[in-house]
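Human: Cast an eye over this sequence-structure pair and say how the chain folds.
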Amino acid sequence: MKRHLVTTVVMVLFPVILQAQEHRHADAHEHGIVQLDIAIEDKTADIDLEAPAFNIYGFEHRPVSAADKAKQNAGLEKIRKNLTNLIQFQPDAGCSIRVGKLAWVLETAQGHNQGTQQGEHSVVQGEFKVTCKKSLPGTKLRLGFSRMFREFNLNKVRVQAVTADRQTSKDILNDEGEVQL
């Protein structure tokens, strides 16, 4: 019964969070900020990540040169190999994080009159699955994005987390502080 309640709460609240995030993206492209949306159900969590590509590998245009493609691959690989340093659940929870999807998405802005391309922005999007030995609600989460991507001026992580009992939203600046789940 509790599992169905959690699923229902997540299904009701998560679209609201995602709609707010989509509205935010339509209004502005914010450099320096990673968005993490976390849906928690007892010992598991689903995490969605979105970050400006500039803050992960240093540029937003479509990678054409071999050097740009290498930088992009290095940035994505840095996330894959360092997930437990970037997203740090309490050690006693015994969590493992698995990458479901990690990719870059090119967003283009169209001109109002002629439909010409006015600019390109790309984002890195990720989906991760967390499995823990202990229940996650009530535990704390720390982050390591600013330390890992300091050379690209990533300085804020905006976290929104949903459990069966509560919804939390917090901005973490320069990896200082933690989020109560």
Observations:
- The mean pLDDT is 84.
- The chain has one domain: 2-180.
